[in-house]
Amino acid sequence: MTPRTRWIRILMGSVASVLLLNATRAQSQPLQFDEVLSSVTAHDPRIRRAVEEVRRAKGVTTEARGAFDPRIDGDLSLTGGAYYDLRSANAELRQPTSLWGSEIYVGYRVGVSIDQRWPTYRSDQTLSGGELRAGIELPIWRGGVIDEPRAERARAIHLEEAAEEDLSSAALNLELAAAGAYWSWVSAGQKLEVTKALLALAEDRDTQLRRRLAAGSIAEFDVTDNERILLERRAFLVSAQRSFEQAAFGLSLFLRDPAGRSVVPDPSRLPKEAVRSAEPELAEDLVQSRVLACHPELGSARAKLDAAEIDVKLTRNQLAPELRGRFQYSRDLGELTGTDLDFTLPGNVFQAGLELSMPLLFRDERGRASAARAKVAASRAGIDLLEDQLVARMRDAASAVRAAHERVELTQQVVGTAEELAKGERRRFEFGSSNLIFVNLREQQAAMARVQFIDAVAVAEIERTRWETTTQVECR
Q1: Contact 408, 456 (CB under 8 A)
Q2: How many C-beta neighbours within 10 Å does residue 56 have?
Q3: I need a surface site. Which of 29, 82, 341, 462 has the fewest CB within 10 A?
Q4: What residues contact residue 406 under an 8 Å CB cut-off, 6+ apart?
Q5: φ/ψ (deg, to 5) at 355
Q6: What is the rounded CA–CA span in Å between residue 170 and residue 272?
Q7: What are the phi and psi torsion angles at 108 (to 5°)?
């Protein structure tokens, strides 16, 4: 092993150790929503599916642009067995253009008889040096303003834009869905801790009550009543544990390892406290114009509308006769033969012509035009509805954020009051001034207040994410 190889291996081992250490540290830290969101962005199959749809749309666009690629055609033939023989070759290079649907071409052909002293009287006969030609073909009526290749290219470009907007929409929708799953897991885990603490109070009290029963200071009835409370709270714990596990399975659809495999979050990574973020600035009137101009759902719908309008433009153009013009210049090269061939193949040839084709009823064209117009009208109505829905969603999200933060403030105050009352009721019970019914009631009220606070924080975070995914959008 050379010194350079040794140092490279040492360096690679150090990098791997650092990466492993960072991964270990990350796994020991509380799971934050940013980590879940990063996992969604990097590994979620729904994002990958949307990315592949963008790739597919780009492929379709490339395919549509291929209609304007130059092409070359050629053929060779040998005609024999009759009185006149002919050897011929032909090659032509054509270039379709987007300029009024025109197509330009250049070509070369040669057609000579086996005995060049005699003409063959065939249409592909040339002088000995062959014939050079160049020309242009263009639609004069149908296909001039727009034709199928140009329409397909424009349609593909718009649909590619729609696919990119759909990718942005998928990312926003997944962010909101991931927030719901994450905060459901956090709230379920923290409510499980509340249930455990509630059970621990009853278990500690059971020990105290049994000592007092042994000392003869209380009746056995109090111990039995506390046993009922114990059983009830253990049932609550089973239900809370199930809810926490169910929430973890739901979160695993968004949390993935570097290989893209679904990961069920470890309970040890549960955040200990329900901490809400600051209330976002809610200025509906200021962001409404940006939402209507830049939201990817609207961007996708508008791009698809543009693609549909291309079809309307195409079908309208096809309700016309097909009239094509052609102009060609050609020149034969080679030595004169001294035969009749010299008179049939002069040096410079200019050719111009028209070609007309027209269906008599246009039922096919009229039907497709009507269907295209109906599709555009439906798309426009859908966009109008989507705009109204986005405005309503934005205003509803702002209202929900305000209500959720107000609820957090109120439930936080209730928590302090309910816990203080529960502590006071337990002290009264210890001094014989209360009973288990009131103690149990106060403890349950304190636990319920804590649960309501946890739910309020989770709802506030989810609604904040809904507001952000609705309003924090950028125009392309």
Answers
A1: yes
A2: 13
A3: 82
A4: none
A5: -135, 130
A6: 31
A7: -145, 140
Residues paired with 354 in a beta bridge = 325
Query: How far is the CA of 5 from the CAs of 14, 16, 17, 102, 316, in angstroms?
Result: 14, 16, 18, 62, 70
Which residue segments constitute the domains of the chain, with CATH numbers given?
A: 29-63+151-307+372-471 (1.20.1600.10), 69-140+323-361 (no CATH)
- CA-nearest of 424, 319, 302, 425 to 368 is 319
Round to whole Å and give the CA distance between 54 and 59. 9
Sign of CA dihedral 22, 26, 32, 36: positive
d(CA 326, CA 342): 26
List the pLDDT tens digit at each of the 476 positions of the chain: 443 333 334 334 433 333 333 444 456 689 999 999 999 999 999 999 999 999 999 999 999 999 999 999 999 988 776 666 778 899 999 999 989 899 999 999 988 776 655 555 566 777 778 889 999 999 998 888 999 999 999 999 999 999 999 999 999 999 999 999 999 999 999 999 999 999 999 998 888 888 888 887 778 888 898 899 999 999 999 999 999 999 999 999 999 999 889 999 999 999 987 777 777 777 888 889 899 999 999 999 999 999 999 999 999 998 889 899 999 999 988 776 555 555 555 678 899 999 998 888 888 889 999 999 999 999 999 999 999 999 999 999 999 999 999 999 999 999 999 999 999 988 888 887 888 888 888 999 999 999 999 999 999 999 999 999 999 888 87
Cα separation, 225 vs 464, whole angstroms: 44
Rg (CA), the chain: 40
Our CA dihedral for 255, 259, 260, 261, rounded to 10 degrees, sits at -70
Q: Indicate yes or no: pTM above 0.90.
A: no
Decide: 435 and 251 in contact? Cβ < 8 Å: no
Decide: 86 and 122 in contact? Cβ < 8 Å: yes
Are 70 and 95 in contact by the 8 Å Cβ rule? The answer is: yes
Is the CA virtual torsion 198, 203, 209, 213 positive or negative? positive
Edge-first strand listing for the sheet containing 322-333: 71-79, 86-96, 103-112, 130-139, 322-333, 348-357
Distance CA 407, CA 462 (A): 14
Q: Provide the residue type at 338 as one letter.
A: G
Instruction: Characterise 100 by phi-psi region: left (phi > 0), alpha (psi -120 to 50), beta (else).
Output: left
Calpha distance 198→182 (Å, rounded): 24
CA distance 303 to 168: 14
